[in-house]
């Protein structure tokens, strides 16, 4: 009995030890497995981080450079864009994007209804497909608002989650649409400064523009009013620094909201300021008259016979408001005589006139800070008839920005102006290319002032400021023929004319006459008043003093001896 009990005790004790040994063995094996797994992970990380990284980085020198550029472009937050006074025009914010794990969705119908209420722009059919998918990930909405994110969190649905992405934001909406431009979802610039300065912005560097937010508002407001008042289809306006070429404001209408580019039409996205090419009519008389002074050194008393229409081959050149008399140079310019300007062009000569236009940058696409640039339309064969019609802008088409820059070159003393949109680091910008003499520029300033005091641009005048400018009314070419009912009405001017600081141009596309304009849709009625309203706003915004202007010393007074009455007999001695 004793032996049996002892045997049993020994047997039980042996079984216990055997179990302990077995458990220890299993734990040891498990520990070894964990250690081996750990080392395998470490080795794999070393392989990925060092060995394969070195191989991929050093395959070739070029691939190394490309990879480093790609990494910096992805990792760097895109730079901001500012106006000249530091107002934010474009920035990048980190925003939440909503995704779903379809396999964790409990009630797809209820979830779909809830999300459609929170994010109304969702496509319900697409949302339902995502919620019923068999995979583990699906995008629901990108770049949602903080308020929408909070409402989604309040649902408490475990199938929903958020990823944070960068989104380009434009605080000014549509105000700078065509010049600032926009990016795609991945931050690649597609238009405007966003496109042309993509390499700079993508590395995190900011870009400062020459634009002034306050002046941009003023131009858009008054241009919109002109388009509305005259039931026009479109328009554009620009303010330039006459000496440096800095663009202080640039508007193209219709425009679009940069934050919702996908909703914009092609018509809204078209940049009429730099890409649109138009026949701008009598504005070209500024350049043909300047060419006459500069190349032939004529005085203001030089006369041209505008009594009868001018016939050249199958063309007949008429005056819109015919004076039917012999005109002096100031009278040709003041009355905007096509006949007189054509005779000037004939005197200048075709080759010389074309070269003069080319030197002013009117005949070739301009080199500018954005890539949306129009190519001027110039006759391939320059005949005598071309010279005559080109002297008053018929048959030539250029962009409004090129026209404005050329006018700046005429009035600033004769130095070539190249428009710029990105603010230079050096504030002392000085043109070094002379396109005409100072004397020619001085004469042209007097003539431009005369147009406003006594000619077709009277409605552009602003009391207290010496405004000078030129009207331009041109028929649009439709299917190869000019349509008298479809006009381009423009006014380009500068001030103060004794020493011009600003050049401003307004162009309105297809205006229709109204009661206030007595049915006229010409530049003097359409564009000139908008110009005057903008100058008035500029004076208030920039604090421009009007008390420096002395009417008794107006530069156009010097031209009175060359002006005659309607019969061409008695000289005018006063206004």
Textual characterization of the structure:
With 575 residues, the protein is of the alpha+beta class. Among the domains are: 57 residues; 332 residues, DD-peptidase/beta-lactamase superfamily (Beta-lactamase), CATH 3.40.710. Helices cover 40% and strands 16% of the residues. The chain has 18 helices and 14 strands. Strand 6 and strand 7 form a beta hairpin.
Brief summary:
With 575 residues, this protein is an alpha+beta fold.
Helix and strand arrangement:
Blueprint: H1 2-57, H2 61-75, E1 81-82, E2 88-100, H3 108-118, H4 124-131, E3 138-141, H5 146-155, E4 160-169, H6 177-180, H7 192-196, H8 198-201, E5 207-208, H9 213-229, E6 234-241, E7 247-253, H10 266-269, H11 285-296, E8 303-305, E9 310-312, E10 315-317, E11 326-328, H12 329-334, H13 338-348, H14 350-359, H15 384-390, H16 400-411, H17 438-454, E12 468-478, E13 481-495, E14 502-509, H18 523-542
Parallel strand pairs: 1-5
Antiparallel strand pairs: 1-2, 2-3, 2-4, 6-7, 6-14, 8-11, 9-10, 12-13, 13-14
Helix pairs in contact: 3-4, 9-18, 11-13, 11-14, 11-17, 13-15, 14-15
Sequence stretches where pLDDT stays below 50 over 5 or more residues: 1-12, 41-75
CATH architecture field of the domain at 216-257 and 273-562: 3-Layer(aba) Sandwich
CATH superfamily of the domain at 216-257 and 273-562: DD-peptidase/beta-lactamase superfamily
Overall outline: elongated
